[in-house]
Structure to design on (1986 residues):
């Protein structure tokens, strides 16, 4: 485990030395006003990112061979210039694989991935439709896919944007979908669940999460809706005697899950399960975005009766944390 | 109970006499091409409406004193002209109050209103927040309001457009909201429930359902969002020591429940409970609209593999009844 | 070849007998005002469709065993009721396969399909990129696909809505794309051409054209963009060593060819070839729609200085046929 | 009256000492690059706001007990760093109530509030409709409401965003509405006037103007349309025998005055008076925004033939001051 | 003056003979079910239009030589078929020029055109800006333009759609603009007035009003904004020493008077006068549309407490006639 | 030719002296933190623009008499402050006309303007329609107009934003239009060409390109669509016997070439030539914008597999350079 995190530096005494492991997110050569060269870095870990400056790039204690994407061990101190926190780096070398845990370097779920994965498999286990059960079992049994499914964020920014975020989002949705499926007899529960589990599976290839969260070129050009549909179609076609109608319905659910053409779904939901999926997916994403916003306000020490700033993931609206606001009024 | 319903006439032998009770939805004086006067009526009951013609308005067996909104007993026969069904009315008189059951004359819920009402009160009973419980108890104890709440449709056309439709929609939403509230710890369950129960209460005065479903002038000019907010605010103000913050939150939920400005909500949902309410309300309305559309296709004998027509309540999209389509493929 | 076409009936002497072959587009049992049963039919051929009535359905000269989708031989006369043309059918039987040419029964291209197909293959032949050439050769060599490609309409209604319309549209686009590719060095000509030839290939399964033009259930739920992408991906995956980057680009062109999310493309064009394809496709469709509208005005005898009606395929705008308008002014 | 205003400092000799009274709009602890603590303040008055730095926060001449929202007396000098003006504060203490006039600390109307108020009462006095007259008289007689009405800004930013701005806007609208009411016989003059006077009354509680202009939590969650409607409804309900139809119309005018659903009006104007109100309100706000923009250009010394920047309150369009542009061309 | 008007026929005894002058709006050859030829006409006058049938087109009392656009004298009777009023025409001849007054045949203003014209000239007379005065004087002195200005409707359908409607609309706007110009010192009164008088002058050529109201081809292709700007520019260029800045401003007002790009103005209003013009023009059009709708309801005998239907010219909203609704409540 | 360009300074040794000619784009008086006055300049040439500071404005080697818009000769050095490049100016004087070539000071086409102009005249020469030929010949023969046509940029920013950009864009479009005109027999080739050559001619007065690219006041208030239409109309009116229909068509093409009302065209394209023009104009602009973006990425050394940033001229989408991406994959 890391000793110091980016988020800790805000409260660190200025000038005091620290040692830490960070992911190099950017690296640039620059010169000062007086024409002296220095290195400007963006260093990050799971708690955030910060600018770091190497004023003596020629110092032998500063490695020459590190690049964007490397993990480094750095010694330095924190300082504040014109009210902006910075790191001053005195020593730096590439970290050994054994020294670092990738989950320390990118934000990741606070839940236990093993438990989440077990829950997901449990939902599949509960299916009564043999075709859908065999489809999901086949897909989730693929070790590479399963590994990615456990790691992938649910989005680059908006909601569940952390390692394991996709799995966390899907398991939350499974629980929710189960409750809703029971409520509406019109819904085929296993079909809805299948849509929940597969709707974002294209993100396993749309996004990369090695050095920060980003889109792959394939992801940018095709999108996770197309990638996920194709992945699923290939899996279905590998199964003998999968009912063609069921195949059409499963693919339709992935295609239509954004609910609107302008959100990138080429088809509107036209079956009850697809309609329900698009609502629940959107609701779960927004509830998480709200929760994340409230957590951030708490961390930043905002008073309970101050609305949040304008939240991008919620159409620029401002929010109020009901429970906290009411709670304080009772004290 | 009525002997014959509008919906039955489609399969009635042409020319055969029937007796029935109908609501007069329109009444006009007209003349034939040869200048002979006749009466043109629109008669309705819970199963639909149909044109009826009185060719001998001077016949003593035809009452003179009936108006739009009256219930009449009529004797006549069905016929089809240029492929359009019509009634030919031979005798007609105003019905006695004892002869008719209003629920026969307008479409009404197929569920037991007493059971639904009991369920609603049960939800209120389960509240742990004393202020919200006392607010809802006070409002639902008002006999006039309670009577309207049990009768009102949820809409003029789009969804749950039948007597008792509002209550049916709200009870469905309560069950659903309970399940969702448990899933998200961020949600204050009683506040969400309060929003569910009160969100459409303005419809008790926005709509009239005496002679068909229509908007009142007050309803057209103010809308159920404003009417419901005012109704609730008055109820709150009548309660001693109701917490002002809680009042603001309850009113905000009613105001924002349409989820978007362009749908007539003057505020977007800004608290978790309001966000959840707007999603669940929309989902429940759309699931009912889907169900209603599928029922209609079944009644009309459409084949299972034919998409529905373009459904107005669902942005003109066409729908497919998953279970029926899959079901037939297994036979 | 047929002796009489729907379009001819408008100028046919009322009452005079005709014999003709028609496609049964609809068939309904009805009764007259006096309770007499009759059959109401919609009969069509490549020139249009018309209502036909069988007033004596019990007549032995009227077949009992025909259904929607059958081709029938009918004898009857044309008449006009309340300014609306109708057929009165006296005799009717199911046509023998040998008696009819399907291309007589649905509107179809006025160009020679063999010539068009040859032109298409010629474009593929001219490719210098071996991978794209082998992809298209493989796909177009599939006899079933080739048969469908020669028959399919380009759309249900808006443009090139006739048998062979897709092929006609694609060959027009190939010629155009060739000219544009030469103009912009930034464009990869073979990649652009590949996009042109494959962009609408999903329509082979999205649409059915046996009994009028309609959407299949699969087409309605998945859309031709998804169907075409999947078809192409499968073809690519069957080819050894197809470059993965090229695959991504080809799929991107199909996905993005509608040019806007709200038109059902899940991705905007992000490469020069996709941008050019979306422009040319749209331009060619609109030019054809204009041409079709002008032809219709000519057929209907509208004067040269009268704007067309509001054209649905062109955002409800009215059009003017420049050449005709100028031409007349010179006479 | 204050001796020095924020706006004066731009032309103040650098380094020369000033004494002034300011409103503390923000207060933060910071440290310099060399880890020395200092205070960063935002100080404001009616002419603007400026950053101020206390480099010696431990100096006994610097008060410890002031907070955001306090009015302070400060001694210091102005300086410019990297072309940005700043205050360097040497002494600072909380001001005594008697020392300051609140209207010096926030921008406020340049008109005489007493005269405006008198004009407003004069309009009410002129009513011939006794019910509307008694409604307005009752409301404006409430001393707390009257006090707020005289102080409130008309908006947080867009137009009339200064103390007394609401009253100024309403009196301007009254004069305008009087002229328009005479022009259209269809308009009920007193009803239109009532709408003018009450349309923004909810802003008295939607906005706070103690320490800068901001939204209250109630204002953010309910909005001035709902707050104003409720306030008015309560006043009406307190009057014996107020005609119910008139009540509906008055409330409708407040509800619909933004003219469009997407601007937060839950109802479109459906009566002539509401339509006229929405037009005049919008016109007056935009004319004031134009005037304000032109005044700013003049202050900043922009030449007469230069368009303004993109004006946010006018859909980002650029403006030209006609009179000034023409005027110069005549010199 | 005509003896009988279309509007009178609704209350005319069926079968009774009338004589009247009508404009032929359409003329078609048709045959009956029994193959008998007849003529179908649409006849109109200023009060409306109606279908007329000539059952004996060979009768020598029926002229052969009339066409669409002619004025005819017809003798016949009114009858009602399937609740739709019709004329049965027994005699018909082309009317002599002396027999008819064109203003009887198309709807026309109820105000005195001479008085309106005089008022318009009076406004021009009152100008103090000599350039604008000389521009308008020159234009309105052109006899052909002045004649058209007195006749033109203000629109084909939406508002002031009658002969003299444009003049009526402009004079109403002049009065209104005068009042508003006095209210805002920022406004150059003569420039605003010039915009009012010229903003729709392109309609003199965009519309034709000989045989019903329609667009000319030039009008359809260029639009009244372009036509009016060009007309004005030509007039300005014919005046010696007209100030170029003033020319730009006048043209800008015509160009931008629709207020939004999507309403066909290629520029948004960027000067105060243009902004005011776009508001007042829209307000006056909508007030007239409201008045027209209320008049229609009154004519049709709708009760005072029934909202109008959805009004196309007012974004499909329903309206309520305030004064009438309140009035009845006082009776 | 200039010795040093703005773009070169990024790689210039800090502190080393340079001499260069620059256009003064802005000039401001400022003072340092210590109250010392200095001059802040924005200097530009065809390769970009940069901030320059004169720390000793009183130095006799610094001219007093230069203004925004002047070309100056400056001696100084480049330095970097907080990672932002700056010039430090030691000497500065106004350049002599003979010393500078205007095409060095603003970005300009890399093509030969003489060749482009010749190509344009060649297209006109090829016309078979005598009226259109004489119209274009007359206009392009006007020396002032021809001079402007050869210099004008096609836009202020989005595409072809350099001297000669308009001519370059038009000649590209002519070639393209020629190819498309041959493809669609419905198109009148000379009319389409006329539209191509005249569609942006209003930019000659909408834009100014003396001191950077900017809008004139006339341009801002009227726009190039109106200015170009008027210019063309005047030219047509000066030609004897120009066919009026042809005039309407030519003007319609200029008016409608933006293709949508919301893009500032007051009319949608309603004739085939106008439709084609709007497509080709948009396509050519976007192809150039893509090319420009790819060139920029290459200059900045971006890797071939990195998408571009969000491109403003292409609806904020990101782009991929197909050829470069594929090319690298083959190496």
């Amino acid at each position: 485990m890391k000793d110091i995190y980016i988020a800790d530096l805000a409260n660190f005494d200025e000038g005091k030395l620290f040692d830490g492991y960070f992911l190099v997110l950017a690296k640039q050569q620059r010169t000062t006003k007086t024409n002296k060269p220095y290195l400007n870095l963006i260093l990050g870990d799971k708690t955030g990112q910060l600018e770091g400056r190497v004023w003596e790039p020629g110092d032998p204690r500063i490695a020459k061979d590190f690049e964007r994407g490397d993990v480094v061990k750095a010694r330095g101190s924190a300082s504040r210039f014109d009210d902006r926190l910075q790191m001053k780096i005195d020593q730096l070398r590439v970290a050994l694989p054994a020294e670092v845990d990738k989950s320390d370097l990118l934000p990741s779920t606070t839940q236990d991935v093993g438990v989440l994965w077990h829950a997901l498999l449990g939902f599949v286990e509960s299916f009564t439709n043999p075709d859908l059960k065999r489809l999901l079992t086949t897909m989730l049994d693929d070790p590479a896919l399963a590994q990615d499914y456990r790691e992938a964020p649910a989005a680059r920014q908006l909601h569940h944007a952390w390692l394991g975020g996709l799995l966390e989002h899907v398991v939350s949705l499974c629980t929710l979908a189960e409750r809703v499926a029971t409520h509406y007899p019109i819904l085929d529960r296993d079909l809805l669940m299948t849509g929940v589990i597969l709707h974002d599976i294209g993100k396993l290839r749309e996004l990369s999460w090695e050095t920060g969260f980003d889109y792959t070129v394939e992801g940018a050009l095709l999108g996770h809706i197309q990638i996920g549909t194709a992945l699923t179609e290939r899996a279905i076609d590998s199964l003998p005697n999968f009912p063609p109608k069921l195949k059409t319905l499963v693919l339709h659910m992935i295609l239509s899950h954004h609910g609107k053409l302008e959100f990138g779904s080429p088809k509107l939901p036209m079956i009850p399960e697809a309609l329900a999926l698009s609502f629940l997916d959107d609701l779960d994403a927004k509830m998480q975005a709200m929760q994340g916003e409230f957590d951030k306000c708490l961390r930043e020490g905002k008073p309970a009766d101050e609305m949040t700033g304008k939240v991008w993931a919620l159409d620029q609206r401002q929010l109020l944390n009901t429970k906290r606001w009411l709670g304080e009024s009772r004290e």
In short: Residues 46 and 104 of chain C are 5 Å apart (CA to CA). Residues 272-299 of chain C form the longest helix (28 residues). The longest strand of chain C covers residues 17-31.
